[in-house]
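Extended Data, panel c. Modelled sequence:
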Amino acid sequence: MDPKDRELLEKTFDLAEENNHLLRSMRRSMRFSQAFRVVYWLVIIGLSVGAYYVIQPYVDQLMGVYGSFSNDYSNIQGALKAFGG
């Protein structure tokens, strides 16, 4: 093997090692990114479910108040029709 071919082979080997290093780094970054994305969505979904359970009693209470106002309004309309009509 002449020196020129050996030099070319060594340059090719160095480039292959550098590419391997870069590709491994990119793969590691992608894995961290995917793991972070999964954790991110789990936190968002968990907080949403938690907020639902915290707010649910207040929503039920508001629905009860709305139902009682609706019944009172219907009773008032019935009374007005009875007296007016």
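The mean pLDDT is 90. This feature is highlighted in the accompanying rendering.
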